Amino acid sequence: MATSLVSRAKMASRFKRVTDEQVTELKEAAENLNTRKSTINWLRVFDKWCDENSLQKKPGDDST
């Protein structure tokens, strides 16, 4: 068991120490590229469907 503690300490020492605030900033700034691309794609599909069916894209949108 002492071996695993030593190896954990060695592995952890490879990484830079960061504060909880820095971790929070990274989480908030992180953006999944695939999610963004997928969202943009499906919004385009929805817009096209609305255009084809002569529907309003947004409530209160009088552009149709």
Q: How is this structure best described in words?
A:
By secondary structure, the protein is mainly alpha-helical. It has a domain of 25 residues. 64% of the residues lie in helices and 0% in strands. The chain contains three helices and no strands. The longest helix is centred in the middle third of the chain and has 20 residues. The protein is rod-shaped, with a radius of gyration of 24 Å.
Question: Can you give keywords for this protein?
Answer:
64 residues, single chain, mainly alpha, 0% strand
Instruction: Tell me, briefly, the overall form.
Output: rod-shaped
Fraction in beta strands = under 5%
Query: What is the number of E strands?
Result: 0
Biggest β-sheet strands, sense, barrel? none
Tally of DSSP helical segments: 3
Short description:
The protein has helices spanning 2-12, 20-29, 33-52.
Write the layout of secondary structure elements.
Elements: H1 2-12, H2 20-29, H3 33-52
